[in-house]
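Hello again, I could really use a second opinion on something today. My current little project is about how a certain protein chain folds up. You're getting the sequence in one-letter code plus the fold written as tokens. Here's the protein in full, and shout if anything looks odd to you:
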Amino acid sequence: MFAKYIIRLDDIAENMNNSNFFLLKDIFIKNNIQPLIGVIPNNQDEELLRYPKSEFDFWQEIRELQRLGWNIAVHGYNHKFETNSSGILGINKRSEFAGLALEKQNEKIIKAIKVFNENKINIDAFMAPAHSYDINTLRCLFDNQINSITDGYGIFPYKKEGIVFVPQLFSKPRKMPFGIYTFCFHPNDMTIDQINELDIFIKRNRNNIITFNNVINKYNNSMYKIVINSLIEKLVKSYRIYRAR
């Protein structure tokens, strides 16, 4: 089994680095690649609001990308961090969701869905801001029929609390021997060199780049994959503890 790759873009919003976004869009379209993009329904992140508001019809652009086969994740509701919780994954000590009461989280999810529905966007996945969510987040997603998440440890999809997780480990593209890997990029912060590096990786590995939905549709939870994921999780957590010393 050859490795397969998913391209993920975070922090897609009405206020963003449009120059980088359209450079990446051009690369994806030329190479017939359909990435997963995390769209913020009601952006209130002060760092992102420093970018000028899009002069084009933002939601029309998202609808067109979905028509082209791009997968759309709901990237929180407003991307404002309300707690210092690192959630289940323990990566970043900030969160829009983890640590909040179930009712408050559910309210955010419902509002996010409403914005997407009003703009005729289908939700393919949930993408937690700062990779931070907790058990209440999962329950709210399940109750609102959002059944997949782009995040987690491992190299194969797995299921928890009725939700399919497609793990995300790396922020830099790299050739791997086997497994399914999501490479996470933040277009707002990417340099031209990083964009060119991604372009080269795509050209060299185009046949092994797949869509998020393709993985979800072919998901199976074999014991072999469960064991491999468990080992990967232990290794990654041990490495992070070692680096933090």
In short: DSSP finds seven helices and eight strands in the chain. The chain has a mean pLDDT of 93. Residues 4-244 form a domain with the TIM Barrel fold (CATH 3.20.20.370). The longest strand covers residues 4-12.
